[in-house]
């Protein structure tokens, strides 16, 4: 039986990594997010090294690769992309006016979310449940999510290089307006189902907290993006046609706008 403080060690590691947000406020939920997930994957490989199975090793390695890709992409965008900085002027708080108490609350909340997001795999390892078919199914879903998210990021970057002042409606953006967020949700859906057959009792509440939390964050992010795009392209007839015919986040689901849902604030 593994010690109960293993989970809190996972939480402490997420706090350590995401503390980068004190350097730049937005990094709590960008660089801190990606690199916290990567670190969690490595930590689980270390903590449960003696009882790892092929399926659980695969999930932990995917966490590491996912986190490094996301964190690396966000770091490049925020530190090297002049066009991104220009577009986000006034859209993202620099944190200088945010009270320290608020920063501390966000830091702890984010770290807890990151720890609970990976908890289905953690509890599988903690309960020494080994691997079953759900683990391999979840790994495939996770890889599909990463692939979709990566492809969306690449397609958007290419489109913006051709026409930086136009909204993107090509490739995956013909299916949904936020395919990168969709990929993120697919990834974490895969993680969630990895707990089937291994997670027990109250542990499901922890898993649900992480899964529900990241789904909420994705819808909140889609709302922020919609508001920003409406501001930038709202007078463009092509954009108006686009937003009325392409779902914002879920393919084949006629949900075209979430701007009016003010409770989607994260």
Task: Name the helicity range.
Answer: 55-70%
Cα separation of the termini? 37 Å
The dominant shape is: globular
Q: How many structural domains in the coordinates?
A: 1
C-alpha-based Rg, rounded: 19 Å
State the secondary-structure class.
mainly alpha
List the helices and strands and how they pair.
Blueprint (H helix, E strand, L loop, with lengths): L4 H14 L12 H17 L6 H27 L1 H6 L12 H18 L1 H8 L6 H30 L16 H15 L9 H31 L3 H9 L21
Helix pairs in contact: 1-2, 1-5, 2-3, 2-5, 3-7, 5-9, 7-8, 8-9
Q: Nutshell version of this structure?
A:
This protein is mainly α. The protein has ten helices and no strands.
Describe the structure.
Helices cover 66% and strands 0% of the residues. By secondary structure, the chain is mostly helical. It has one domain (5-245). It is globular. The mean pLDDT is 91.
Q: Which structural traits does this protein have?
A:
mainly alpha, about 0% strand, about 270 residues
